[in-house]
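Sequence only, no structure available. Ideas?
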Amino acid sequence: MALRQPPFESLGPSALGLSAQDTLHLLERNISDYAIFMLDPTGHVVSWNAGAERIKGYTEQEIRGKHFSVFYPADDITAGKPERELEIAIAEGRVEDEGWRVRKDGTRFWANVVITALFDDFGRLRGFGKVTRDMTDRREAEEALRESEERFRLLVRDVTDYAIFMLDPTGHVVSWNAGAERIKGYTEQEIHGKHFSVFYPAEDIARGRPEHNLETAVLEGRVEDEGWRVRKDGTRFWANVVITALYGEKRRLRGFGKVTRDMTEQREAEQSLEERRRLLTHLIQAQESEWRRIAAELHSGSIPELDAVSRDQRELAEQLPEPYAEQLRELVTRADTATEQLRALVTRLRPPGIERSSLVAAIDDYLAANAAEWGLDYSVESRLESEPPPDAAVTIFRICQEALTNVHKHAHAKNVSVSLSHTGSGVLTRVSDDGVGISGPADLRPARDHYGVVEMRERAETVGGWWTMRRTDPGTLVEFWVPALRRRIGKAPA
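Reply:
I predicted one. Tokens follow.
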């Protein structure tokens, strides 16, 4: 019967034909992750392995017989660290240390070092076994992690604009930052361990809102909420809150991260802006209504009366001798001119009909009705994503109307273009022509025939926008921006 070969791992050194000394020698020679070597009782190197050569840079011939203090930085040598470590190894059997060591080329590395005192059977010191491992990479990674954690800790601790804190899985506070103390009024000692529902108003607690927010965070990973919260002194503030579920290994819930921002001032500002928007809407509506009334009275009252006067004067002029007839005809001409001016005024005062069509259509209709008479070719370009609200649309139309009237009266232009686009939270409008252009800042000051410039600027700025006019080559560009949100008036873009 053939003998069964024992498994390889059961074979001892003798089974391989190696003595224990030979086995140790093979291990020392081939291990490269550790520097393994021996020192004599005075600390001089008497053996050297491949790992020691790789880590420290010396060959065995270069290092044998040298004192092991050569591996230590100068300040450690001055402090007597090498000798002290040998003394501890003798007294306690071994010593373990981590610190900087020096390679042959003078570079430093972070080392984990174990020195073991070696005694013979009679208790005599025969030397020291020294095992060194290069831990530089691990130390750098640990140091980077530590610095990152420290920066994050300092950031979280010192941020005052946000309350940043943690809850345990049941919703009790386990950490607290400076922002949380500033916003909520509790010190860390006062709030630590309390349930976070203490920040909610009584009506929210009764409805189970705190628990609902945690349940949502667990189900969806996070929950964002806005509402009233309560400070330590009982006062309320409007908060934006984000709660994030925090999981450890194997998706085990470790707690919740909670970030709260006091939005009270912003909410009050938004409410103030909303109130201003409502007032401006009423103002625009009242203004348009008044202009409609004036236009109606002129159209049905003053203009027909002037027409009748002119007609009667013409008939009378036919019956009078010269030079009285000629003087009367001159009066008729002046009355006709005044009548035409009133008709033009009525046209301008009449509402643009935006409620029956779109802003772009109203501008296009206005140009279609007037551009040919003014001797202008025109274009209207729209990149609007949606129709502006009525109050904004009327404001934009009226500014465009005034700008186009200025082109007709002053520019001596052949072409005019109007473009509209959404920019930020409003509408950016450009009216450009190829006329003579403005001469300079004087054109922007109010004068007998330049009140329209002031009116355009005031219309834009009244609703929270801006207006500008500048010379181009050729012509003039009128550019303005007005907010066009249904819920609020935004800040004009810089």
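The two ends are 97 Å apart (CA to CA).
Hope that gets you unstuck.
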